[in-house]
Write a structure and sequence with these properties.
This protein is of the alpha/beta class. It is built from 13 helices and eleven strands. The radius of gyration is 24 Å and the shape is globular. The chain binds iron/sulfur cluster (SF4).
Length: about 425
Amino acid sequence: MNESLFNKLRILSDAAKYDVSCVSSGVERKNKTVGGIGNASSAGICHAWSSDGRCISLLKILLTNDCIYDCSYCLNRVTNNTERATFTPEEVAELTIQFYRRNYIEGLFLSSAVEKSPDHTMENIYKVLELLRYKYNFWGYVHVKVIPGADPILVQKAGMLADRMSVNIELPTEKSLRTLAPQKKIENIIKPMSVINNEITRTIEDKKFFRSTPRFVPGGQSTQMIIGATPDSDKTILGLSQNLYGRFNMKRVFFSAYIPVISSPNLPAISTMPPLLREHRLYQADWLMRFYYFNCEELFTETDQNLDLDFDPKMMYALRNLNRFPLEINKAPYEELLRIPGLGVKSAQKIVRERKNAQLSYDSLKKMRTVLKRAKYFITVKGKYYGNVKFDPEIIKTELRRMEVQQQLSIYDLI
Ligand code: SF4
């Protein structure tokens, strides 16, 4: 690799590290092209994590960091004095192939700043896809970002060649977007999301009648939201996520704890730590909404519009709604079992299956390897309550905290 290309790679891979929406799961597309290389079946894609915990399973780069926009939170903003670089589409395609052949990567995650105009940038992203698929016959996983404001035709063309696409929603409200990223218009973000969703639906329908219909973005679309750069509450953030899942069939909404790298009067101070625990709680709540039948509203109260940092969202829900507990393990419907803190989908399914044969006892739950450490405060088994403290939210909280401390101390004992 020549020095100038290496330099571009250094700058543009470093600039891409703040993008977290790069998971590559959920694609099942085998390479059927004669002589083609790469394979996007889910088993063929491995994930790796960088030292700061972000997913870098793919060659993760920006096409350019030479941006015409001025988003307050971004190092690449036009008014920031940073080192700039721009790949040509041919350079990105060639790098991907070289890295793939050396077994460094399984695929490509390509994002970009807005160079010259949204259309110009999206056109170049499309060219990368075209080169990879048709010149190099590479059918491995490729995730590309959509540049808000780009012509929908370009989005459509790119979507026929990409495995996953994402349009960053960036911030939780329009007001926050106006304050921190005034050149990004909400309608320019929503429109491509809608185009992608419509095309995915259309090609799935067409495929029922014409087997040869190519799939549009088979890995679906995702988006990313910055957390903690604005005063928006967790309820606002999760309410928006819920809408995005419902309206655009999002595969994932990613939360990115705001990392203060640049100073601005509109932003938290540089010395502020990224709100990583908050990000973690948001992912837990997002999981509850997607797989545990929770609604965003249920996770908050009039006065608590943010998730608790001491207890996970399911535990907080149970403690605030003790009137709905304890649940009798032998009778509670599946959806209610899922609301018991500490009980996962697999355990709930097993309970429903096993109780058809015989009434479950506390011992039989243990034999089934159901984790009861926290669940025992919220259930009865054959009518009996097994919690070792009074059925009261504050007393249960104190007991859970005590257990936590004890567990930490016992870890030190092992050292
Ligand atoms: S559009 Fe905004 S967030 Fe994206 S690279 Fe440019 S300045 Fe950064």
